[in-house]
Amino acid sequence: MSGSRADFFFMAQIAEQAERWDDMREYMSRVANVGQPLEVFERNMLSLAFKESVNARRSALRELRNYVGAAPRVEQYQAKLQAELGEVCSSLIGLLPGLIDMADPSDVEAKVFYMKMRGDYCRYLAEYQVGEGNGIAEAKQAYEQAMELATNGLGGNHPGRLGLALNFSVFQNEVLGDKKAAIQLAKETLEHLSKEAPDPSDPDGAANADIKQILEANLSLWRDGAGDDGTQVEDM
After folding, report:
1. pLDDT digits (tens, 9 = 90+) for 24-64
2. How many CA atoms lie within 13 A of 191 on its CB side?
């Protein structure tokens, strides 16, 4: 596929409007591979493309759990979807080192964004046991590194820090089986958020309110001893 960076981004926008997520993912991958740092809106486009592409497969795999064992073809189909999920996740994980290296050293927000993505997509591999090593150690390392950066470089009400804490806490509970750590992280995040007065003019206010609501719901479920399927939403 030939074209300029601007051409690829334009086509990614067209694919988004058409809800052709795999095509959008391909175009945004080409934008990311040009060798220039991504602007904030480009990062968001990259995230959206991969998120929609992988979520469709995660949703399908969750549904197939109800039918595994019903017929050999179901397990074959499950294996096909797992392979697709692995390809999507691995392709993004492969892009991230270059994007992190190209980001301005002082741009903590960008580094947290990319490291959170690494944690998320390694977690997706771990959820469905796709690939060698299953991604658990890699996800944990990425989340921990991102949390350290976010804690030291981003405010308690920054949406990147809040979204990271939300996803990391879900990983702790659902993948690591460490409910105590998940509760502690969610609790500390909400405490930090409550200490910072909300700014009515803050464009991130609505997103923060959504994340806060999910953190509170998850915290309540975990404290009540809900099972793994009790978590409402893991990311935004």
Report:
1. 999 999 999 998 999 999 999 999 999 999 999 999 999 99
2. 6
Amino acid in the structure at residue 92: L
> What integer pLDDT is reported at residue 127 of this predicted model?
84
CA distance 163 to 6: 29
Q: How many CB atoms lie within 10 A of CB 223?
A: 12
| pLDDT, tens digit (0-9, with 9 covering 90-100), for 146-157 | 999 999 999 888
Least Cα distance to 173 among 213, 231, 224 occurs for: 231
Separation in Å, CA 27 to CA 18, 20, 122, 151: 13, 11, 22, 33
Burial status of residue 9 (CB atoms within 10 A of its CB: 0-12, 13-18, 19 or more): buried
Structural contact between residues 234 and 166, judged by C-beta atoms closer than 8 angstroms: yes
What is the pTM (predicted TM-score) of this model?
0.89
Distance CA 148, CA 129 (A): 27
Among 75, 85, 235, which Cα is nearest to 165's? 235
Q: C-alpha 141: how far from its chain's center?
A: 14
pLDDT at 202: 59
Of 41, 43, 51, nearest to 21 (Cα)?
51
Q: By C-alpha distance, which of 137, 187, 196, 133 is closest to 165?
A: 187
Return the CA Rg of the chain: 18
